[in-house]
Amino acid sequence: MTTIGSTRAVVATHEQLIAAFFQASAGKWHSERRYYTLPQGKTKEVCSRLEIELLDRGCEELHHLEALHQLDADALVCGTRVSWCSIDAETGRLQSEDSTLFGALGNQLYRDRGFAIDQPVAAQFHFINPQTLCLRTEYKGSSFEEELKLIGDRYRTRQTIVARAGEQKLIGQYLETRL
């Protein structure tokens, strides 16, 4: 019985932390990022405008996400819709313009698509502290480890490491400033 009670407390803590993190991240952001391709060391710089919208349990977007992942209705406790428009910093050319949905349940973060595929994926998450979210996603032989850190209410940093077959292939580092 103690195990069940403590498990519920941990789940509640995960869900409370992710809800607070989503709330603190909601809004419009300017993102400057640099990608390092390994092992060659080739770099690419990209600038993006992000909009992060908080999604409440039971909303249409989370119902769609629940259906994609074959979850019960109203299972996801909260979520976000992240929209972006990204431009190559060197050429000024449009890189991508799109959006994605995230929804949380326990220590799982469900998404309507992956970084590199248009299929639903799920990530495990944990917090180093209430301002630092860590994610791990795996699919098609690749793993994606990401750390997002809130710095006050005006800044976020992100770092993403992409690996295939156990070898690191790409590092992305981001500085995001609230608009």
Short description:
The protein has 179 residues and is an alpha+beta fold. Helix content is 18%, strand content 57%. Mean pLDDT is 92; it is low at 1-5.
| Number of spatially distinct domains | 1
Adjacency order of strands in the biggest sheet: 1-2-3-4-5-6-7-8-9-10
Which CATH class applies here?
Mainly Beta
Largest sheet: 10 strands, antiparallel, barrel
Query: Can you identify the CATH superfamily?
Result: Calycin beta-barrel core domain
Mean pLDDT: 92
Rg (C-alpha, Å)? 17 Å
List unreliable stretches of 5+ residues.
1-5
CATH architecture: Beta Barrel
How many strands?
10
**Helical segment count:** 2
First and last CA, distance: 48 Å
* CATH fold description: Lipocalin
- Which descriptor suits the 3D outline? globular
Tell me what portion of residues adopts beta-strand conformation: over 45%
By helix and strand content, what is the structural category? alpha+beta
Estimate the helix proportion, in percent.
10-25%
Overview of this structure, please?
A hairpin with a 5-residue loop joins strand 3 and strand 4. The protein has a single domain (2-178), classed as Calycin beta-barrel core domain (Lipocalin). With 179 residues, the chain is α+β, with helices and mostly antiparallel strands. It has a ten-stranded antiparallel beta barrel with strand order 1-2-3-4-5-6-7-8-9-10. The protein starts with a helix and ends with a strand. The protein is globular. It is 18% helix and 57% strand. The chain has helices at residues 2-25, 60-68; strands at 27-37, 42-56, 78-88, 94-105, 108-111, 121-129, 132-139, 142-151, 155-164, 167-178. It contains two helices and ten strands, in the order H-E-E-H-E-E-E-E-E-E-E-E. It comes from Rubidibacter lacunae KORDI 51-2. Belongs to the CpcS/CpeS biliprotein lyase family. One of its GO terms (molecular function) is lyase activity. Covalently attaches a chromophore to Cys residue(s) of phycobiliproteins.
